[in-house]
Structures are given as C-alpha cells and as structure tokens.
Amino acid sequence: MKWLGRKLDSLVSTLFAASFALAASQLLEFIQQYRQRLGGHLAEAQIAFRQTIDGDLPGLNTAARAALATPQQERVTELAQATSTLASAGPWELPWKFLWHLDFGVAGGTLRDYQPALPLDVVSLSYAAAGMVLGWMVWELIKSLFRPHRRHTTTLARSG
Q1: Cβ-Cβ contacts under 8 Å for 28 (sequence gap 6 or more)
Q2: DSSP for 61-85?
Q3: Greatest Cα pair distance in the chain
Q4: Which of 52, 86, 91, 139 could form a disulfide with 16 if both were Cys (CB 3.0 to 4.6 A apart)?
Q5: How far apart are the C-alpha atoms of 77 and 54, rounded to whole Å?
Q6: What angle do CA 16, 21, 22 make, to 5 degrees?
Q7: Could you give the CA distance from residue 60 to residue 68 in angstroms, rounded to a whole number?
Q8: With 0-12 CB in 10 A as exposed, 13-18 as middle and 19+ as buried, what is 78?
Q9: Per-residue confidence at 150, pLDDT binned at 50, 70, 90?
Q10: How far apart are CA 28 and CA 122, in angstroms?
Q11: Model confidence at 105, in pLDDT bands (50, 70, 90)?
C-alpha cells in the first residue's frame, strides 16, 4: 500500500509541477498582450483628453471642460507611466513591474482575449523551469499541512 501512495504522490507532484511550469511559461506572453492592450488604452485616453482640451465637445463651458480634463490627464499620466515602466523593464524584473503597475480593467480584458503562445526562448523556458520548481514546492507544502505531526523523541542509551 505504501508503494501505491508513493506513486500517487509522485503523480500529483508531477501534475503540480507541470501546471505551474505551463502557467509560468505563459507569463511573459500574457504581459506582452497586456502591454499591447495598455498601449491602446493610452492612445484612447490621449485622444479623449485632446478632444476635451481643444473644445471638440460642444455644450461644455470652460469650467466643465477643466473638470473633465483633470481626471483624463491623470489617467493619461498613469497609463503612460505604466507603459514606459514595462517597456524599460528587463526580463527578470518585468513580472514585478507588471504587478506593481497592474491595471485590473486592462488585465481583465487581456485575460478574456488571451491567446496562449509556445515560447521557446531561453527566458521563457527558464520561467517554465522556475514554475516547475514552484509547483513541486507548493505540493510539498500542501502535503505538509495534511500530515499528522509526529513527535520525535530521542532515546538516550545509557551506558552502564
């Protein structure tokens, strides 16, 4: 029976590792598609801001135009900063910069339209390897949470 338990543990461990590896290998592609969508949002925000400032919106007085332009300008600044930060990030700092500047609306749209890719570059494959290690670690952690804790007692041999 122990043999079967070890085999099942090995199977589940491998499934966790493979799942994490696949997810990690797709991370850079997801960020790339997110950056494309982010650029589209930035372009739209810039157009809306210019239309507001240039007076292309009839029926708005100066005060209303200024009230509308302020949040638009803040949005343009926010999107431009995120775009610039992601564009200048190296491959190993990119996930952290992505998380730091994450726009949940843009990320949700990216996730809905996400197209997986088969990355074969060194960085993506190393992400997959790291995901595999992380998957094994998560499985070991889950197993340790359900293992009964045993008390280890040491018997000292008395010499006499």
Answers
A1: 91, 94, 119, 123, 124, 127
A2: -HHHHHHHHHHHHHHHHHHHHHHHH
A3: 103
A4: 139
A5: 18
A6: 100
A7: 10
A8: middle
A9: low
A10: 12
A11: very high
Residue 25 has a CB neighbour count (10 Å cut-off) of 23
Tokens representing residue 97 in the block: 């910069």
Following DSSP, what letter does each residue of 101-117 receive, concatenated?
T--HHHHHHHHHT----
Residue pair 38/86 in contact (Cβ under 8 Å)? The answer is yes
Q: How far apart are CA 23 and CA 123, in angstroms?
A: 14
Give the length of the chain. 160
The two tokens of residue 92 are 């190993």
**CB-based contact 37:110 (threshold 8 Å):** yes
Residues contacting residue 106 through CB under 8 Å, at least 6 positions apart: 34, 37, 38, 41
Measure the CA–CA gap between 54 and 65, rounded to whole angstroms.
Answer: 9
Per-residue pLDDT averaged across 18-47, rounded? 93
